[in-house]
Each structure stands twice: as structure tokens, then as C-alpha cells.
Amino acid sequence: MLRNALPALLLALALPGPGAAEPLPRPAYGPELEGFAYPFPVERYTFASQRQPLQMAYLDVPAATPNGRTAVLLHGKNFCAATWESQIRALSAAGYRVIAPDQIGFCKSSKPAAYQFSFRQLAENTHALLDNLGVERPILVGHSTGGMLAAHYALLYPKAVEQLVLVNPVGLEDWSAKGLPPISLAQWYQRELKTSAESIRAYETATYYAGRWEPRYEPWVTMLAGLNSGPGKEAVAWDSALVYDMIVTQPVVYRFPQIAVPTLLLIGQKDNTAIGKDLAPAELRPKLGNYPELGKEAAKAIPGARLVEFPELGHAPQMSDPDGFNRALIEGIAAR
């Protein structure tokens, strides 16, 4: 998936060969994903936020033949700007300038030790980046947690958004209101410290890829596992804990009727994502993350929203079926 034969290299590092007694050690990356290559040049936006200097990494890929429109891709909780590679290439070929940031606390961006994570703050950071780049009315494409961020951005800056695209966003339901017990930052932090390649792969198989694992997904496991096992793993785990707390305690579903920009929902129907589901009472778990119903409810709640469903795909349709997803995305944003 990445250039320069990176997937083959990562697989060779990560997986045992014939007759091997045990797998070779996986790479360990720095707290800003130092050592992991992105498929496009990485730029950095330096700014001050909450009385400290921070840097936000981002990709800025020009259009092959510009149509004057810009797509901004907002990654999910366990994703990075690099995981949008297929969409960046497809959008660029279709005439769009594409900007894909790594949010503060994620991937190649700063990992502040003390930061009040909120969707409003992340939206303000993203708006400042786009203003610095001269982007006024982008098409916002948000996946998973990035979908929650995109919704908040559209609520904060409705006149600064051309279109909103939500790809299997989390936050289509209020888990706490449905019975998810309180989860402390200490609990989230301890859970994140235990993250491993095996736990990542198992979770992603069941949730992102509808139970079907393919070797082409392995680089993204290596990316996350290396970030979570590297020299800055405590800082990475702490910011991750703060982000999980933000996701659970700042629901956006109640404000869907206030979204005032054209909205497209792209929903994999075999998604079952619900943050903290494993900590919910056993009888509640099957009732959470019902995306076939949640997608329809969101489409009804957001004025004028259009819904496209992918019957056989899970939480990451853009990765499971990039060609089919890219067609739906480009057709959807062209129909304005």
C-alpha cells in the first residue's frame, strides 16, 4: 500500500517465515511516529495552543488537474493521515487538492503532557491550519472519531464548510446515556499501555474489516503497535486516554438537527463500534454499535442528509474496498 515496497518490508519484519521459531521483533517508532514513512511529504504547522507550542503534521497533495475544490480528510482514533492514501490519490486524480492532518495527540503530531482535549479545540486547531493554508470552504471528510470532529467543525464554522462527509462516524449514539459505566482516565491509560500488535489486529479484524483479515492491512497494525511500544509510549498512551475520555463524554448526536451544511453519510453496515463496549454490562453490549440503524437515524436527524450504505463492509469501508468507496465518495461530493 505504501510506496517503496514498505508493506513487504513490514511483513517481513513482523511475520515468522517457514520453520521460524518465533517472529522477528517489530519496529518501535518515536512518539511522533519517527521512523514510519508516509506516502506523501509531511508538512508541519507550528502554533501555540493552551499556553504551549505545538506542531501539527499534515499532508497537502495538489490536484492533478485542479477543479478549484479542496477536500480535508480527518482521521479516526486508531488511524493517521497516511491511512487515507487511496482516497488522497483518487481525489487528487479527480481534481481536488487534498489536505490530511494528524490531529494533536496523534501520529506525527505533538503529544502534549497536559492538554484539555475537546472536539472544539481540535476543530479550532484544524481551522487555524486551513486558514494558514488559505483554504476557506473545504469539503470535510471525517472517519470514525474524525467524523465526530467534522460534525463539530461544521457546527462551529457552518459558513466555512462546503460539504460534510461522515464515514462510519462514532458518536451516533450516547453510550453513557445508554448505560456505559463511568471510565476513569486511569482506566483508559492502563488499557492503552497494554496495547499490542495482537490486540490491535484482533480488534480491527472484528470491527474494521467485518471479520475478514488481509495481509495488506498489516502495515497499519505495525504503525500503531510501533507507536504504542516505542520510547514515547507513556506519552502516547496518556494522550490516547484523554482522547477516549473526550469521545465518550462529548456526544454530538444531540446536535445533528443543527448541522446546516450538505451532508453525506457513508456507512459500512457490518460495523459494530462502540467505545468502551467491553466495559458495558453484558446485556447492553449487543445493543451498542448497531450501525445499520444508527446510520438511518443520523440521516433522518441531519437536515437533507444523503445516506450511502455498504452492505458487506465494516468500520473502515475506505480501507476494505477502496475502489468502491472512492467511487461513492467522488460521486457523492460531485452531486452538490
TrEMBL record:
Gene3D superfamilies: alpha/beta hydrolase. One of its GO terms (cellular component) is membrane. Keywords: Hydrolase, Signal. This is Alpha/beta hydrolase. Residues 1-21 form the signal peptide. It comes from Methylobacterium tardum. InterPro entries: AB_hydrolase_1, AB_hydrolase_fold, AB_hydrolase_sf, Epox_hydrolase-like. GO terms for biological process: acylglycerol catabolic process. GO terms for molecular function: monoacylglycerol lipase activity.
